[in-house]
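Hypothesis: this fold can be encoded by more than one sequence.
Test: take the structure tokens below, design a sequence, compare later.
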């Protein structure tokens, strides 16, 4: 299964969206990097460091700006028509998803096969490569939801 299809299926599992958003919004993690690490069974520190560097660059260039615009468009902005604002927000959301897909596919292209790490091990290694590791409990929550 290709990484994007796997990620959509994984994200649809109970508890995964909430765990991912908590890791992103509370602990400053990148959920695409985390999900890729689980998919790739990544544990190689060198690969994870390169993946984290690529992810940080993509975050700065595309993901964070798109996410910020999408979130800003959530609240009414008079005199802008609400229907038009919400339609634009959905377009931005689509672009944000496209940027996440491109990131996942890029990371997948960086890995060669599976690294053999179990989900929690891959999440811990990816979080460590991200510079500010998330609490073990938050990573364990996502690993359990993905199981």
């Amino acid at each position: 299964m290709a990484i994007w299809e796997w990620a959509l299926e994984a994200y649809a599992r109970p508890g995964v969206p909430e765990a991912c958003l908590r890791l992103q919004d509370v602990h400053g993690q990148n959920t695409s990097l985390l999900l890729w690490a689980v998919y790739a069974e990544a544990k190689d520190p060198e690969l994870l460091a390169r993946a984290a560097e690529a992810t940080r660059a993509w975050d700065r260039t595309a993901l964070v700006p798109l996410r910020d615009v999408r979130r800003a468009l959530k609240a009414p902005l008079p005199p802008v028509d609400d229907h038009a604002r919400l339609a634009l927000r959905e377009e931005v959301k689509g672009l944000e998803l496209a940027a996440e897909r491109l990131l996942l596919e890029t990371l997948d292209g960086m890995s060669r096969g599976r690294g053999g790490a179990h989900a929690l091990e891959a999440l811990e290694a990816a979080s460590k490569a991200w510079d500010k590791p998330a609490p073990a409990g938050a990573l364990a929550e996502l690993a359990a939801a993905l199981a």
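The chain has a mean pLDDT of 96. Residues 82-110 form the longest helix (29 residues).
Hypothesis status: open.
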